[in-house]
Amino acid sequence: MTGTTASHPFAQRLHSSPESSLLYADQTTGAALLCIPEVEEQTEHYLAIEHGDSADRGMLTGALGGGCLLIFGSFSVAFFLDNRLEPALAYFAITALAFTLPFLWEVLRPMPLPILLNRRTRELYFEQDGELYHSPWDGIAAATYSFGTVGPYTGGMRHAALEALLHRFGHPQEQVLINLGSPIGKSLEMQLGFWEYLRTYMDKGPWFDAQGNHSESDAFIQSLLASRQGKGQWTRLQWRLIVKDYKTNKGRNFLSYSDFMLLLGGILFSPINALQNFTYAIAKRRARSQWPTLVKERLRPNGPSSRLVDLEQTAEQGGVKP
């Protein structure tokens, strides 16, 4: 454990873990930059980290709608080509319902808002049960530590959490610990690397290269986000591998049975993945409108530059609640 003091909010939590570190916004950990899959969006002004069960949004629509599209949609086309309109319309109706019902349920159901890092105002936002929590980035209380789990099928596994301490807007005595991404399956080195990624975004961003140097191009960042958002991109990846083998072997014995089956599977599952991505995008766009006005206006390029903690301090000096 490094940098722990008895007065620090994480002192007791980190004391129980021999592999732990306090993290500071102005101090490097020395770890290599690493982006995690939970980073769902990175723009010039803010970075969004997926939170809660939002990662599964769209899965039901993709499975039911895409599955029925493959099966009943094929039947509908076959009957239509055979001039049998009644069964063709029946199968089409089944396909439409299999998409519409879960789509409406997943889009209209409240979706957990992401954790936001505002680069303009240098602060972090989090929403829980309708309450807004926040922390200034400079001086933020954060830590990473490892822990183990034991399961009947997985055996013993090591994980690492990356947590930050925030307080409720207008009520600094009410605090909450949040995970910056899922801790499952991550190592301490991975979490330290992600902390460096966040530090680089806030200090040298919005765009930078793999070494953490400022860049005028967003090519490196978009390549990372494309990998994260690439549900359904397996077909494209597999095709690139096949083309690479074709060139390497000069067109001879380049296509193996496993390559062919993986490519075919990617093609067959592409409607499922496409519907899942579409549903997720619509649900995310609808959820973003639920942020409080104080947050939404600070996410705009020309929005206020004052931090929420500044509003709290001004209100406290004036003797009123923000």
Commentary on this structure:
With 322 residues, the chain is an alpha+beta fold. It has one domain. Helices cover 45% and strands 19% of the residues. The chain is built from nine helices and nine strands. It has helices spanning 11-15, 59-81, 85-108, 188-204, 219-229, 234-248, 257-288, 293-299, 308-318; strands spanning 20-23, 39-42, 46-49, 115-118, 123-128, 131-136, 141-151, 155-168, 171-179. Strands 1, 2, 3, 4, 5, 6, 7, 8 and 9 form a nine-stranded antiparallel beta sheet that branches. A hairpin with a 4-residue loop joins strand 4 and strand 5. Helix 2 runs antiparallel to helix 3, helix 3 crosses helix 7 (257-288) and helix 6 (234-248) runs antiparallel to helix 7. The longest helix has 32 residues, at 257-288.
